[in-house]
Amino acid sequence: MAEIYDLNSGELKDGAVAEKSKDGQYIIPPCTPEEWETIVPTENDFKHVKRVNKKTLAEMSEEDILFEAKTKRYRKNFAQRHRNVYEEHETNGTLDQLPIDNMFHPQTTGAPIPAKPVSYTHLTLPTTPYV
Prior knowledge:
mainly alpha, 4 helices, elongated
C-alpha cells in the first residue's frame, strides 16, 4: 500500500522529514480507566498479539501481552459499536443523521462508507471446462 504525504510545493527542505497524511484515518479515542478494567480479551486476541509480535514475543512480559490483547479488544469493541449505530441508521433510512463522530461517517473518514463483506458462496463454478 502506498504511503501518502501532505506536501506543498517547495515545503520539504533538505534534511526535513515528511509527516504521513492523516486524511482518511480515524483516530480511536483513548479508553477511560473505568472502561479499561471491564475489557476482557478473547483467546483470539491473545493469538493475534502473539502472531503479530512473533519477533519480539520473547521480550514481551505477560503484562505486555495482556495490554496488547486488551487494546485490540477495545479497538474491536469500539468499531463494532460504531458499526451497530451505522447499521441502525442504514436500516431506518436515516444515514443523513449519522453522528459525525461515528468512524463510518463519510466526512470522518474522507472516503465512502466501507461496505460490508460480501459472501460469494452462492456462486457455482462449472464442473466441466469450456470447449
